[in-house]
């Protein structure tokens, strides 16, 4: 039984389990984003039992990234690893550098872009662990995007808890 402020126990076994997994830094990305960018699926909602999703987002030197939007059911956090990433905090665009962190609660308007002309990378953390992989893969696939009707886009964004401002 955990102490005050802790969530209820999810594991009730007597002595713990051997179930950790290590992903090596040099592992290939799961998704090519084009323009020198890629996404590494470090921990998906499926692999964390829905607790969180963690992705390493690598952006090439060309300008890229979503404009202002919000989510109703998930938080999103950004931790800049390398380069300069423009982060929208709901009021203004701010340059984030290595070590900078932006947390966006549910309903918070946010966005990110690489406009530096140089590569940049960051960690994206979603809580709880929504299935963001289909969203990323559809956005990265030009043929899938082109085949979608306006009605398809509306359904797609609603299904993926993405509301543009």
Structural features, described:
- With 165 residues, the chain is of the alpha+beta class.
- The chain is 15% helix and 32% strand.
- The chain contains 3 helices and 11 strands; from the N terminus they run ββββββββββαααβ.
- The strands form 3 sheets. Strands 1-2-3-10-5-8 form a 6-stranded antiparallel β-sheet, with helices on one face. The protein has a 3-stranded antiparallel β-sheet with strand order 7-6-9, with no helix packed on it.
- The longest helix is centred in the last third of the chain and has 10 residues.
- The chain is globular, with a radius of gyration of 17 Å.
- It starts with 30 loop residues before the first strand and ends with a strand.
- The model has no long low-confidence stretch (mean pLDDT 96).
- N- to C-terminal separation? 43 Å
Mean pLDDT: 96
State the shape.
Answer: globular
Number of extended strands: 11
Strand order of the largest sheet: 1-2-3-10-5-8
Q: Uncertain regions: pLDDT < 50 for 5+ in a row?
A: none
Query: What string gives the helices and strands in order?
Result: EEEEEEEEEEHHHE
Helix content: 10-25%
Structural class per helix/strand content? alpha+beta
The largest β sheet comes out as:
6 strands, antiparallel
Strand content: 25-35%
Radius of gyration: 17 Å
Please give the count of helices. 3
């Amino acid at each position: 039984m955990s102490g005050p402020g802790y969530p209820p126990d999810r594991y009730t076994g007597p002595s713990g389990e051997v179930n950790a997994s290590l992903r090596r830094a040099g592992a290939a990305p799961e998704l090519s984003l084009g323009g020198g960018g890629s996404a590494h699926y470090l921990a998906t909602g499926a692999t964390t039992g829905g607790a969180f999703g963690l992705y390493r987002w690598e952006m090439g030197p060309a300008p890229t990234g979503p404009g202002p939007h919000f989510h109703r059911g998930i938080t999103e956090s950004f931790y800049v690893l390398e380069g300069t990433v423009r982060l929208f905090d709901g009021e203004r665009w701010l340059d984030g550098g290595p070590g900078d962190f932006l947390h966006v609660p549910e309903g918070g308007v946010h966005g990110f872009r690489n406009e530096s002309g140089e590569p940049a990378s960051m960690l994206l953390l979603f809580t709880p662990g929504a299935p963001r992989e289909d969203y990323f893969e559809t956005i990265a696939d030009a043929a899938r995007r082109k085949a979608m009707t306006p009605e398809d886009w509306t359904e797609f964004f609603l299904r993926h808890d993405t509301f543009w401002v």
